[in-house]
Amino acid sequence: MEIGENIIELKGLSKEYDGQKVLKEINLYVRKNEFITLLGPSGCGKTTTLRLIGGFEVPTSGQILFEGKDIASLPPYRRRVNTVFQKYALFPHLDIYENIAFGLRLKGMDEDLIDSKVKDMLHLVNLDGFEIRDVDSLSGGQQQRVAIARALVNEPEVLLLDEPLAALDLKIRKEMQTELKKMQQRLGITFIFVTHDQEEALTMSDTVVVMKDGSIRQIGTPEMIYNEPKSAFVAEFIGESNIVSGIMHEDLVVEFIGRKFKCLDKGFKEKEEVDVVIRPEDIKIVNFDEGMLIGTVESVIFKGVHYEMIVNVSGNEFMLHNTHMAKVGSKIGLRIDPDDIHIMKKVDNKYDK
Asked: What pTM does this model have?
């Protein structure tokens, strides 16, 4: 499935409640067939953005373009999008078949066509034979599938999903992450997904939009967001990170913890104060006499696939992830390669695509 041209564009989009700006002139484009995730902590503006696209809120200013036409003033039923809410909003007095058929009946569709479409959707979400079951008899994961089928049966060009997996237990949640991604690829439609779960965003998305305080802080592929964070906030929010203060002496040379290291970053002012980000898995344990840094192991926790160690280096604590364990109290050498050192400005800047 190829990702195509832009289908939705947000231009200078803002939203205020009681004079407080919760969305601050954001600019974003969404491409056809793309699985894009809005990721951020509570109150960052991600759900507000989704509700604006869906037509459940009216922007204070800015444009919402759908294939080039401003739809900001259109009601939800006139937009070519459908929404799956966190609480699913299924009708308890209707069986599964009628829940899915509800939107088609409102359109006055022929009964034979309704029957064909509903059964196709039940097959798509692996609920064949569930037509006459009650909503209350289903598990959380099954209810979520019905909600998705009810949205998809209307053949929207864009599906909006507002934290639809939040209420599921861990095992079912991970299964549904995989199913949702496969479903999106099979259908070839655009998914706009909202979550505060970093792993969920990295697992499912073509593009991740990291938000904070009503603005966009970084946009990129999951790999780019994880490996090349543009701010300390993004680095801390996307996975675990060691963040220390440093000084950029010149291009490709940074100092932290009292020694200079080669890095791949440039374009900073001479002697500029910076934040240095190093992922726990990127710090290598080497022989004591080969270490670029020397540290003392303070704690070790077994995490299943690796050991998590806290190592004290000249009064600074570093987290390490390694498949080999070093004993508590032992001194070890540490090596950090240039491409594992990420430099960013102290100012928490905004970034666009």
From this structure: 0.85
Lookup: tokens for 130? 């569930």
Cα-based angle 339, 212, 16 (whole degrees, multiple of 5): 155
What is the model's pLDDT at position 347? 65
258-280 pLDDT, tens digit per residue, is 999 999 999 999 999 999 999 99
Q: Which residues contact 156 (CB under 8 A, 6 or more apart)?
A: 80, 81, 82, 189
Give the pLDDT score at 183: 87
Which alpha helices (H) appear in 188-250, and where do they start and end? 198-204, 222-227, 232-237
pLDDT of residue 86: 75
Give the DSSP per-residue string, 29-66.
Answer: EEETT-EEEEE-STTSSHHHHHHHHHTSS--SEEEEEE
| CATH number, position 319 | 2.40.50.140
Q: How far apart are CA 305 and CA 321, in angstroms?
A: 9
171 within some domain: yes
Q: Which domain holds residue 299?
A: 288-335
**Cα 222 to the center of its chain, rounded Å:** 8
Q: Please report, as a single letter, which amino acid is at residue 138.
A: L
- Which of 101, 193, 176 shows the shortest CA–CA distance to 139? 176
Classify strands 342-345 and 272-278 as parallel, antiparallel or unpaired: antiparallel
Name the nearest CA neighbour of 278 among 242, 313, 230. Answer: 242
123 and 29 part of one domain: yes
Q: Average pLDDT for consecutive 10-residue bins of the chain (353 residues)?
A: 88 95 97 97 96 96 97 93 83 94 91 94 90 91 89 92 84 85 90 94 96 97 93 90 95 95 94 95 92 96 95 96 95 96 75 41
Q: Considering the domain boundaries, does residue 294 fall inside one?
A: yes
Helix (H, G, I), strand (E, B) or coil at 236: helix
Helix H or strand E encompassing 172: helix 170-187
Residue 112 lies in a domain: yes
Among 165, 141, 162, 161, smallest CA distance to 152 is for 161
